[in-house]
Amino acid sequence: AQSVTQLGSHVSVSEGALVLLRCNYSSSVPPYLFWYVQYPNQGLQLLLKYTSAATLVKGINGFEAEFKKSETSFHLTKPSAHMSDAAEYFCAVSNFGNEKLTFGTGTRLTIIP
Amino acid sequence: DAMVIQNPRYQVTQFGKPVTLSCSQTLNHNVMYWYQQKSSQAPKLLFHYYDKDFNNEADTPDNFQSRRPNTSFCFLDIRSPGLGDAAMYLCATGDLGLVDTEAFFGQGTRLTVV
Hints:
By secondary structure, chain A is mainly beta. Chain A has strands spanning 3-5, 10-14, 19-21, 24-26, 32-38, 44-50, 56-58, 64-68, 73-78, 87-94, 102-103, 107-112. In chain A, 37% of the residues are buried.
C-alpha cells in the first residue's frame, strides 16, 4: 500500500520569502510522485512530477521539488513567494504516472503581504 | 482548450433525489477516474473505468454508481444523496499506454445537498 504524509496543514510565509512544503511517502515499489495545486472551487492543477528520471524536478510557477529516496521525501520549494501562490497544495503518489493517485491531506499556503 | 470538462460546475440537489454528474474528455484517454473531495480533505478515489472495465474501490458506498457509455464520457450517479455526500467531485483521465505521463483533472463539480 502507498501513502503520503504532508507535515503542516497550514503554512504561512511572507511575500518574497522561501516556500517549503513537506511531503514524505511510503511505497513498496518505486514511486511516481506529484504535487498539485488547488485554488478555491477549482480542480487540481499539476505543478510537477517525479517519474524516476532526474531527482530535482522543476515545475510551473517557479516551483521545484527534490526526490530523496534515503529520506522518502519529496518536498516542494519556491525561492520567493508571491501572493498568487496562496492555495491548497497536495502531494500524491502512484505506481505509474497515470494510475490512480493516493493523496496527502494537503497544505494550505497563506502568503503574508 | 479544456481537455477534461465537468458539468455542471455547481449542483444543488435535494436529500434523497437522484443526481448525475457529467465528465467528458477530448484526450482519448483509456482511463477515467472519479474522486470525492470533502471540505478541507484530500481527494479520495471512488472508482475508475479502464476502457469499459469498471473498478470500484472497496470502501465506496453502494449509493454511488458510474457509467461510461463511450470513451469520451463518464457519469457519476448518486442514487439517494445524503447530507454527507456534499463534496467536490473531481473527474480525471489517464492513459495507461503512456509512460511518464500523469492524470488530467477537470474543474470539478461542487455538490450541495439540501
